[in-house]
Please model this.
Amino acid sequence: MYNVHPIAPKRLPELLKRMPKAELHIHIEGSLEPELIFKLSKKNNIPIPYENVEALRSAYAFNNLQSFLDIYYAGASVLITEDDFYEMAHAYFLKAAQDHVVHAELFFDPQTHTVRGVPMQAIIHGLSRACKEAEQTLGITTCLILCFLRHLSEEDALKTLEEAMPFKNYLVGVGLDSGEVGNPPEKFSKVFAKCKALGLKLVAHAGEEGPPSYIWSALDVLGVQRIDHGVQCIKDPELINRLRLERTPLTVCPLSNLKLKVFPSLADHNIAKLLAEGLCVTINSDDPAYFGGYIYENFLQTFEALGLGAKEAYAFAHNSFEASFMTTSEKEKRYHELKVCFESFVEHDA
Ligand code: ADE
Ligand code: ZN
Model:
């Protein structure tokens, strides 16, 4: 393992910004800023029940996951055409590039759109056009992960998978999101088995608000390679052991957990404990337009609240590449770039 040199606290924000990183937990619909919601609402003639951008933004005060999801799905209702999906993802990639994200794995929720009559093709073609452009113009490698909405039935998920089949080559994998409690992973065992047989990678939200048993069943029943959130594993020492031994990544989203009241403050967040326990934890933004910041802001606020330094910064960035669905050689290239970046912060005696 690379020997990380400590750096002066005043240089930490610059390091957190400049170090190359992967974003593995971003719902692209959660990057829809109020300004773009209003623009698309006018263009597509879809009314939204807020006077203006400020009124919409001030409605972003949540008590829990469900209170957020209600507004999030309302916001996503302005997306109609292929260009709308392109524009949303393009705006995200510009922000991600500023935060030195060099690899991004985007979640999208097709059922939110197909139920309103938006064709699967418009969604996937729009997003993948923005992905291709980000690779060519920003040097960000990308992939798409189709998420099934767990508050809907497994039949609906199976139908969605059928609709996505003509576009299978655009997808690296599938995930599971939306309201967790009462919708355990095992509700989706058939559709995940199908996806596995198709060679798709598997991830699932588990242990965000739900119990550790949901993390066990995501691993054992669905066979996922990564757990999204997973912070409730702290309640189960046997589960922590397993996650450590199998190096199952957790894609943690600190500002999301703060805004959805999973933790009362960032100083109470358990991410530093999970890292110290030897787990492959990463820092991500979840729904940055709703939770007050993109990935750098998640790093900065978490590091300030928990008093973390260069060693932890390196570990989180390294974990983000390790946990990604990049090839081994792509990972090696990113590990090298990470070391070069950290070397550039070492202060040599004159
Ligand atoms: N969809 C968008 N953000 C989500 C989250 N934090 N948990 C579950 N589903 C989501
Ligand atoms: Zn999420």
User: Anything to note?
Assistant: The beta strands are 21-27, 101-108, 141-149, 171-177, 201-206, 226-229, 250-252, 281-283.
